[in-house]
Structures are given as C-alpha cells and as structure tokens.
C-alpha cells in the first residue's frame, strides 16, 4: 500500500471509454450472455496441465475489480504443487466428513442432494490448479501501521466473479469449494492473521467423461431475477 502522506484525491481524465451504438451494445451484451451461459461448475477434471501464465493473467483480471475505498482487500494463492494440493484435500475432506455426518444440518444436506456432492473430493488432487482466495480484514501502510478495509465481503465477491469469468473466457473450467471452517489454509499457505480464506477455486479442463447435475441447468427466468423501474 502507499505511504500515508501520499493519500490524496487527484482527478485524471477517464483513461478508457467505450463508444458503441445502442445496436452494438445490445449485440455485445447478448454475446457475453451466450458465452457465460456455457460456463459450468464441474467436479470431473482432467490432469491436463495449464500454464501458470494463464492462471496469472486471469488473476490479474480479477485484481481490476472495484473495491471499497480501492483497498483491494484480496490475495490469491495459486497452487500446482501436488503435495500441497493433497494436504489441502486431506484437510478439506476432514471438514466435509463432519458436515455430511450431520454438522451441516438436515435442511442444508437435503438441499445438496440434487447436486450429488459428498465428502470425497478427488478433484482437489486431480485438477492442475487450486486457487485459494483470501479476504484481507485490514491492510498495512509502508511503515507497518494498520488501516481498515471496507466492504470486504462485497469487494472480494466481485473479484471472485471477475476471476471465474476470466477463467471461462480462457477456456478453463472451475469449481467453487468452501469447506467450513477453512482456518487450516492460513497455516498451510503461510498467510497472515489479517486474512481469511473464503473459497478454493478448483481450476482445469474437464475430463472426457465429465458430467454436471441436471438441476444445475435449471436457472431462474429473467422475470424472476429482474425488476425494472422506469
């Protein structure tokens, strides 16, 4: 972060500006919808390698997301090391076993039945990359003093959405995985107390026999998710 004495407001001309007609905007919006609608969460991954440069570029895109006071309260740890991935799998499955043994509550576990999930997470080993997303509760100036971060869940959520979209645009598939609790990730990945792991993104290519649950293709209609006030 910058030095405290350098924090001040300065306006600059908008560096990037879209100049599209209404027809061009409509075409672009529809094209984006048609592309993102082909994104699927999968659990059947291939072990086909993915160059780290591609993962880095997708995370670079995530880092452009808007955030409270522009504090950018996120950190991404991209993991390809098989030993670390396996350690994460073992720790995550311990938490998942507690969840499916009743810790999640009957209602939640019942809601997951159409998704077909369980405590076993082999994809954490198989997929070439795991990206752990950390939310930063507070930051530090260059002199070591702390400053508060604002709208942290919202900001990190937006950045995560950017990352998922970027991975899809790059031709990759991913799965959001949230074992609860995830405190083990701080120690395992040497992250500070100021950070909280909120998600593991499993990233790679689908296996040749990959499937998705049928219920995942059922999406709310536009009139169910949209209200327009004119």
Question: Your description of this structure?
Answer:
This protein is α+β, with helices and mostly antiparallel strands. The chain has a single domain (43-225), classed as 3-Layer(aba) Sandwich (NADH Oxidase), CATH 3.40.109. The protein contains eight helices and six strands, in the order H-H-E-H-H-H-E-E-E-H-E-H-E-H. Strands 1-2-6-5 form a four-stranded antiparallel sheet. A two-stranded antiparallel ribbon has the order 3-4. Helix 2 (52-62) crosses helix 6 (152-169). It is globular, with a radius of gyration of 20 Å. The mean pLDDT is 95.
Key phrases:
230 residues; NADH Oxidase; 8 helices; 6 strands; alpha+beta; two-stranded antiparallel ribbon
Provide the structure class.
Answer: alpha+beta
With strands numbered from the N-terminus, the spatial order across the biggest sheet is 1-2-6-5
The number of helical runs is 8
In whole angstroms, how far apart are the ends? 42 Å
The CATH superfamily is identified as NADH Oxidase
Indicate the overall shape: globular
Query: Mean pLDDT, rounded to whole units?
Result: 95
Summarize the structure.
With 230 residues, the protein is α+β, with helices and mostly antiparallel strands.
Structural topology:
Elements: H1 22-36, H2 52-62, E1 74-79, H3 82-103, H4 106-112, H5 123-126, E2 129-136, E3 138-140, E4 146-148, H6 152-169, E5 173-177, H7 184-189, E6 195-204, H8 222-225
Antiparallel strand pairs: 1-2, 2-6, 3-4, 5-6
Helix pairs in contact: 2-6
């Amino acid at each position: 972060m910058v030095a405290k004495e350098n924090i001040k407001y300065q306006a600059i001309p908008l560096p990037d500006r879209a100049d599209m007609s209404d027809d061009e905007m409509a075409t672009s919006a529809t094209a984006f919808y048609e592309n993102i609608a082909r994104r699927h969460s999968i659990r059947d991954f291939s072990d086909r390698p993915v160059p780290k440069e591609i993962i880095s570029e997708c995370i670079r895109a995530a880092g452009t997301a808007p955030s409270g006071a522009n504090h950018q309260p996120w950190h991404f740890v991209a993991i390809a090391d098989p030993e670390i991935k396996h350690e994460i799998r073992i720790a995550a499955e311990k938490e998942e076993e507690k969840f499916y043994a009743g810790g999640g509550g009957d209602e939640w576990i019942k809601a997951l039945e159409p998704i077909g999930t369980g405590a076993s997470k082999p994809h954490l080993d198989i997929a070439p990359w795991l990206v752990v997303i950390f939310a930063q509760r507070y930051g530090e100036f260059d002199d070591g003093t702390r400053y508060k971060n604002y709208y942290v869940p919202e900001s990190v959520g937006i950045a995560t959405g950017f990352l998922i979209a970027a991975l899809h645009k790059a031709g990759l598939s991913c799965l959001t995985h949230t074992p609860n609790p995830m405190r083990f990730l701080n120690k395992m990945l040497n992250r500070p107390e100021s950070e909280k792991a909120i998600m593991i993104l499993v990233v790679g290519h689908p296996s040749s026999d990959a499937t998705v649950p049928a219920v995942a293709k059922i999406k709310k209609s536009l009139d169910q998710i949209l209200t327009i006030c004119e």
